[in-house]
Amino acid sequence: TRVTTQYEMHAVEAAGLLKMDFLGIRNLSILGKAVEIVAKTTGEKIDIYDLPFDDRETFAMLSRGETMGTFQLAGSGMTRWLKELRPNRIEDIMAMVALYRPGPMESIPEYIRRKHNPELVRYLDPRMKKYLDKSYGLIVYQDDLLFSALELAGYNWEEADKFRKAVGKKIPEEMAAQKEKLTKGIVAHGQTKEFAEELWKLFEPFQAYGFNKAHAASYGIFAYQTAYMKAHYPVQYMTAVLQAEADDTDKVAEIVHECGRMGIEVLPPDVNESFRNFAMVSKPGENGRIRFGLTAIKNVGEHICEVVYAERKERGPYQSLEDLLSRVQDKDLNKKSLESLIQAGALDSFGYDRGLLLANTEQLLAFARAARERLTSSQHSLFGGSNFEEEGKVVLRHDGQASLDDKLRWEKQLLGLYISSHPFVAYERVLHRCLTPLIDVQAKPRDSWVVVGGVVAGMKKKLTKKGAVMLFVTIEDMSGGMELLVFPKTYETTQAIWRENAIVCVVGKTPKEEGDNKIFVENVYLLTPENVEATARQLSLAAPASVAPISVEEAGLHLELTS
């Protein structure tokens, strides 16, 4: 029998029922999949429950702020604190997991100060050292409150549990009663009322949110395990992260950017290397790369992807374009799916330009039909001298050449992001000393100026109560996407610039609130190969000569982009 309720937790408890929280944590699947990929690619069997907790590479990676994909440590705020903390022991990770919560967060700066300056460590009462020594004398866990009640106020374990319940359930009346009881106990056990008041102030943040030590230890160890895998098996781990986030295009873009920073190549789909989902692929002597899965390509369909993969698995790689067209005999290999495979780069390994193949899709499909008929009739002579086949070879009768812009447009349409390059990449080379990557904006101080750039990916107008127009704009750079807010006053002077696929540089401010990841636009520049260098110099006027922008020629704009 199953009981379902919409009562809040206190009413449920009063009714005699037990409230339980069950967490579904995606990182558990990522960690398990990473271990599995390591076993398949290296033969190593990793016991994640027997990792060394003093691994220098892991702590060095976290201290550099390279936290993307790790459990509990990847947010911009947490990453900023980790870089200051420079953790070197598992207890630091546990403490940060516990402290990075509303309320206890106030203690993070002091924790960092005491870690790097042991002479600052102090205990309000010598009796507190035996349970606060690992946290430099600071109250970090819910358990620290209970031990204080036991050691300093003479509570027994039953009374301490009631204290725990009052704190955990955040019941103001209970907390007020506990404050009075605790104060009396502290005075009765050798301390002053002033000491009790000071101690209670340290307890107050935990009324908002406090982790018990067992919870923090579990989360901290799990966070460390994910960081260890990323530090020691980066390609395998990032493959697992991409597999888990494959349905979220924005997250995939961020992860691909992180892979690039780590020196891991992420490649378009390929009929000879791709599996269904993202996969690590490697050749002898290389560290490994990551391939997009075939199912990531829009308009292809899971069925034909399965047919391509199953045929390759059974009979080996496709030796040529003709071999592929002859072996993949399925009605779903039609013009739409074939064009999408071509445009996404899945046939690049056969050595043909995407534009050339796209111009000859009818020839390719005719060859496939002939191969199918040949299999059923075995009358080879019937096809001699056909318009699409000469001695078993596809005849490409139409010219075609895909530009870089073509390839990028197709990849964006079919995969959701740019793979071969990015429309903004050459501009970024000119402007990079002025720019903040979009993925790093959240780590910037609140209410501060920032310069970003990218491709306009989407826009939405909205009327204010006064009837003025404001604009919500999404831009994308190599690291991901972000929403910009263009208020009416700015929109009036910049509205001609805002159009989809425009390449822009934006000057704006971060919000005042933590966690609000957007930019309020103050000014915007429409970028072209002709004006980007002048724009860079304009933005760098206040900077020293050593940070002057590089030239258009150095950036390669004349080679990579058209105006």
Defining traits:
three-stranded mixed sheet; disordered C terminus; five-stranded mixed barrel; alpha+beta; 563 residues; globular; 10 strands; single chain; 25 helices
What's the average pLDDT? 87
Sheet with most strands: 5 strands, mixed, barrel
Q: How large, in whole angstroms, is the Cα Rg?
A: 30 Å
**Strand count:** 10
Distance between the first and last residues' Cα: 67 Å
Helical residues, percent: 40-55%
What does this structure look like?
It is a single chain. It is built from 25 helices and 10 strands. It is an alpha+beta fold and 563 residues long. The strands form 3 sheets. Strands 6-7-8-10-9 form a 5-stranded mixed β-barrel. A hairpin with a 2-residue loop joins strand 4 and strand 5 (393-394). Helix 2 packs across helix 13 (234-244). The longest helix is centred in the middle third of the chain and has 20 residues, at 213-232. It is globular. Residues 380-385, 542-552 and 558-563 have low confidence and may be disordered.
In short, what is this structure?
This protein is an alpha+beta fold and 563 residues long.
Which helices and strands, and how do they pair?
Blueprint: H1 9-14, H2 26-42, H3 56-63, H4 76-85, H5 90-99, H6 108-116, H7 129-132, H8 142-153, H9 157-169, H10 172-188, H11 193-203, H12 213-232, H13 234-244, H14 249-261, E1 266-267, E2 279-281, E3 289-291, H15 302-315, H16 321-327, H17 335-343, H18 354-359, H19 361-377, E4 389-390, E5 393-394, H20 404-415, H21 425-431, E6 449-463, E7 469-477, E8 480-486, H22 488-494, E9 503-509, E10 518-526, H23 532-539, H24 552-555, H25 557-560
Helix pairs in contact: 2-12, 2-13, 3-12, 5-12, 8-9, 10-11, 12-13, 13-14, 16-19
